[in-house]
Amino acid sequence: MAAATSSRRPAAALLVLAAAVVALAAEGARYPPLAPGLSFDFYKKSCPKAESIVREFLASAVRQNVGLAAALIRLHFHDCFVQGCDASILLDATPTQPSEQQSPPNLTLRPAAFKAVNDIRARLDQACGRVVSCADIVALAARESVALGGGPAYKLPLGRRDGLAPASNAAVLAALPPPTSKVPTLLSFLAKINLDVTDLVALSGGHTVGIAHCGSFDNRLFPTQDPTLNKFFAGQLYRTCPTNATVNTTANDVRTPNAFDNKYYVDLLNREGLFTSDQDLLTNATTRPIVTRFAVDQDAFFHQFVYSYVKMGQVNVLTGSQGQVRANCSARNGAAAGDSDLPWSSVVIETVADAAGSLVL
Prior knowledge:
It is a single chain. The protein has 13 helices and two strands; from the N terminus they run H-H-H-H-H-H-H-H-E-H-E-H-H-H-H. It is mainly alpha-helical and 361 residues long. It folds into two domains: 36-174 and 315-332, Peroxidase, domain 1, CATH 1.10.520; 195-312, Peroxidase, domain 2 (Orthogonal Bundle), CATH 1.10.420.10. A two-stranded antiparallel ribbon has the order 1-2. The longest helix has 26 residues, at 2-27. The termini are far apart.
């Protein structure tokens, strides 16, 4: 027993040290204005260990499944772009209401990310009661996933509330640009949520981690090869995706697939961007200088990513008495009297099947 206790001490000390380093680095970051109702110390009194609980859970979970980090980063994108950062992406289908998860752009969101959010919900509930919203859990999980991949540490404004209903399929399709989009189209989508050209290039850097399905980029291989695609790189892609009906996957970033760094932009300079939406960032005269700057200066990318990701994480947030804090992240609280005060209880999580489609973010 004594040996087991002593073996845990170095791990605990490392977690404390890591938290101190994160806090120090986060202080030097630049942040956008905070949305009314959000603050950096929202849970200081009601759940003071909230952030450390999320951090410790994901440190262990990502060691077991490195792909989970990218999945949680992407989940935050898909939540915020559609109807704002209200955790509506987490709501399962009901007999009368479909889920956002059933919309084509969301079919490749990984089931492990949804499970991780519910696992975190359970731990936070045990520590603090039902205080932390599912929308904040998604944002916190994404923040920790960036850091676990070697990306920038940053402070996160909290205080989001959970939405009461999922967005329609039409709303999802109108909010998430397909990977075949070029820069003008991408900018038109981002303008709807007050994001600009610098935000576009910085947020696209999230593709430095994760995987993509052949169906999301096979338009660059068939029926003819995209001339902006590096020929050697194209040859490698043909091995993974020999036909336009292949359902294989490949890494978004061929250089450092599991590291959150600036190599995504180096890929673009070498014409090794995977999606049309990726490579067009170099082709387009407006975005090209930003791509080049991020490719040669990782700190510049990290600083802008933090600013843009925090900005995105405040899109159309619900705060105060708006929405609710869900008892279970997969289901809206029931309408029965007093049900909004019931403790969290688990429900069966519907599996989101993998499919060939993929989305830009």
